[in-house]
Amino acid sequence: xxxxxxxxxxxxxxxxxxxxxxxxxxxxxxxxxxxxxxxxxxxxxxxxxxxxxxxxxxxxxxxxxxxxxxxxxxxxxxxxxxxxxxxxxxxxxxxxxxxxxxxxxxxxxxxxxxxxxxxxxxxxxxxxxxxxxxxxxxxxxxxxxxxxxxxxxxxx
Length: 156
Hints:
By secondary structure, the protein is of the alpha+beta class. 51% of the residues lie in helices and 17% in strands. A four-stranded antiparallel beta sheet has the order 1-4-3-2.
């Protein structure tokens, strides 16, 4: 009887500890999980290919990511209008910040993560003033969540 109580208390303690770890990682991973990349981060993540408009428009989504570090590093689109950018990059197809004024282009996706190239338009000048890659879905939070769900499933 004592052995059964001890095992139940042990499982309860483990679940409580995992719960608090889970809560901690959810709050911390929000900062880690959704962020914009610098050109050097994009280069490490996807490689570094010189930007070419025709290739960008023809490339598959994941192949476009190879040009992102060059686009960000050289500020290709800073100061241009939306129309000028759409002539060069084609029709927008991203999701993050994709409203009437900003432009987003899907540049990478797999079963867990989606990345967009985001071009923010300055409301006063109506020209592009910021360009970055943004992770929209997936990443650390989802990985941690699945880990804890799997761990709790193994305990019970």
